[in-house]
Write a structure and sequence with these properties.
By secondary structure, the protein is mainly β. It contains three helices and 26 strands.
Amino acid sequence: MDTRIMYKSTIASAQEAYDYLDPTGNLTLKWDVISWTPDGYVAVVTMTNFQMYRHIMSPGWTLRWTWAKKEVIWSMVGAQATEQGDCSKFRGNIPHSCEKNPTVVDLLPGVPYNQQIANCCKGGVVSSWGQDPSAAVSSFQLSVGRSGSTNKTVRLPKNFTLLGPGLGYSCSQAKIVPRTVFLTSDGRRTTQAMMTWNVTCTYSQMLASRNPTCCVSMSSFYNSTITPCRTCACGCQNNSTCVPSDSTIQSVVGLNTPTKYNTPLVQCTQHNCPIRVHWHVKLNYMEYWRVKISVTNFNYRLNYTQWTLVAQHPNLNNITQVFSFAYKPLLPYISANDSGMFYGVKFFNDILMEAGPDGNIQTELILQKDKNTFTLNKGWAFPRKVYFNGDECMMPLPDDYPYLPNSAPKNVIGLSFVISAFFLLELLAFW
């Protein structure tokens, strides 16, 4: 069966603008009209990322909409419109943008203070809510003209589009909501917006990419074979669109610069994925078992900043220790506690470098056994699902999972015996 068809059939229901591991996750745009002007209003637009493990990475978000009437943007603070448009009808003061469909981007860090407001100027990078709520907000201010200057004459913008930084988000129509209440810095007085409306954007992996963007490989201490990523897991490509693994670094210099939408340039592999996650069942103790997770970047164009890794496994409800990664359990439902989010430690491994010698990160987990459920049989020790940066990774087929020696074919019984003996020696050395 075609890999792309299988991919669609396995994850379409979970990713069509709904993620069952993050059922309330969305990105909300809130427009607060804070004052009226002679021909319009001044508004603060706040973008809050309520997604637990999906963030917006460099080169950042891009926001578009369509004005309902003939509005213009007189000025902006904390962001800018990418095009001014045709402002030839104006004399004297020239608007910041006269576009009917303006495109707005965040300002870069380090802009002058008179161009900044709170939560702006981060190059459009927005953290996920699960990683860092304080960095999951981005804001800008704009002064709108020719729009009407009362609640009854203002018309809400339409057709919102969010790129984060590529495709994947679908946005609702703007909806008037109760006006936002603000508290002064001394905490003794409250004010409120003149008018507030919200736009909710949800993510669909099927809209973002026709193919998966990562894959999973597996191995174990009890089997000498390695289960690789599936062939063409992220789509097949010819050799002219990938970089041979034996190429020197100099041969890709100039190509390893980010594109506008992070179009990957990957190393030639049988899976053709920018990211590979490897799950290795390392050791089996009396009361615990140990797993090693490695993430390898095959993309020559991109450093993955503030990356996230999500795994779904029934024993994650009893994780004891995580080395070198930060960990947070995901609890989307009261009855389920089988999912967890891993992410980098700041200034240590929160950046997954581009393809090359430094393009990998790894950690180890120690999990306590529940003797009523724990087994190494039938692939139980391997994850049910894996997500990288919010996108579901292509898993191996169940028949390809590493098998226990006692279920091996006759021609590998001798090898299984050697592996079992090695495992016993490991246990004796530990105890």
